[in-house]
Amino acid sequence: MSPASRPASSADLAGQRVQVRYIRHGEVRARVSTIGADGDRAFVLVAGIGVASNYYENLAPGLGEFGPVHALDLPGFAGVPYPKRPMSIQRYAAVVGTVVDELGLVDPVLVGHSMGTQVVAELASQRPELSTLVLIGPVTNPRERSLSKLAFRFLESSAHEPFRVAMLAVGAYLLCGFRWFSAVLPRMMRYRIEDVLPRIQAHTLVIRGEHDSLVPRSWLREMAGLLPRASTWEIEGAAHSVMYDHAKGVAELCVDHAREPFDTRSTEGAGQDLAADAAAGKLVQVADEEARNRRVHVTPRLVLQVLRSRWNEFFASAANRPQDIAEAKTEHFQAQVEAFGAADADAEITEGSQPDARPGEGRA
């Protein structure tokens, strides 16, 4: 990646606060958490079923090159009240559309993860003026729409997820509750995203993790064929929540995609079963070793700050107190900035003492 495509540095992020607001769509509301304010093109992030916008907490700071980043908690998720009747994917897409309109966003970059890919794909299919779309871990594989297969694939992929992702999921599912989760799940499973993809005019980037059993390579290839304008990438070593543990690489891909849509590419080291697709410009395997090996500097004070902010955010979300949610998110965000800032400083020292990478070595 070119230096211009690198996410904002820790120095750029220091002192930024997270803003939280609610936007109403009919009888329901969405909660919007925003980082940054400068720039005229925003990223809009939509999470998957049952989970919260904090799944994007590692990714969001790297997306602020063109404008603010808005992470959404949709009705029924993360403590946001839900209506009496379950919501369809189409209705969730309408909620996101209202958020875009109410915030006055012009051609934002829509990013969806898991069920969130269905939501943003549905909205993009209805709005041809949207030019840029990112689908991360898109569901559901048409050949595995049964509950038993979906559950098995989820558990299979979860075995490759870091422990902190599991902890995020537990808190999010508690806030969502079994009743709403089980009401929305059948609608997610029945939604035929394969019928929607051909209607999308936006240039679409599709990302999967190497160990994402919910999104096999065959499904990625099929999506590439259905989308009129698509680039597909696989992140080595990642699972379904690829944007959390491999946030740096995914952020750089998203920013580059938003700046200038990807052309045909090839990368040395791709697996043999990907060779034909890579030659056709459809599928490229990308090593994300730098992001995977990145370590933070953790101190007892930072650990206490993170635990306190998590605790406060959980109960503030359960009570729908936006100001308290914003304070908790800001506290957690600043702990991340400090921890990663120290790691970045050490990385610069280490890189200065190492020879340059050999030409042809790809990095996400």
Keywords:
364 residues, alpha/beta, 14 helices, globular, disordered N terminus, disordered C terminus
Structural commentary:
This protein has 364 residues and is of the alpha/beta class. It contains 14 helices and nine strands. The protein has helices at 10-13, 89-102, 115-126, 147-158, 163-176, 178-190, 193-196, 217-226, 242-245, 247-259, 275-279, 289-293, 300-319, 322-352, and strands at residues 19-25, 28-35, 43-46, 69-73, 109-113, 132-136, 203-209, 230-235, 283-286. A nine-stranded mixed sheet has the order 1-2-4-3-5-6-7-8-9, with helices on both faces. Strand 7, helix 8 and strand 8 form a beta-alpha-beta unit. The radius of gyration is 19 Å and the shape is globular.
Tally of helical segments: 14
Distance between the termini: 7 Å
What profile does the largest beta sheet have? 9 strands, mixed
Secondary structure: helix percent: 40-55%
Count of β-strands: 9
Tell me the structural class.
alpha/beta
Q: Please provide the ordered H/E string of secondary-structure elements.
A: HEEEEHEHEHHHHEHEHHHEHHH
Question: pLDDT average, as an integer?
Answer: 81
What's the shape?
Answer: globular
Outline:
This protein is α/β, with parallel strands linked by helices.
Which secondary structure elements does this structure contain, and how are they paired or packed?
Layout: H1 10-13, E1 19-25, E2 28-35, E3 43-46, E4 69-73, H2 89-102, E5 109-113, H3 115-126, E6 132-136, H4 147-158, H5 163-176, H6 178-190, H7 193-196, E7 203-209, H8 217-226, E8 230-235, H9 242-245, H10 247-259, H11 275-279, E9 283-286, H12 289-293, H13 300-319, H14 322-352
Parallel strand pairs: 3-4, 3-5, 5-6, 6-7, 7-8, 8-9
Antiparallel strand pairs: 1-2, 2-4
Helix pairs in contact: 2-3, 13-14
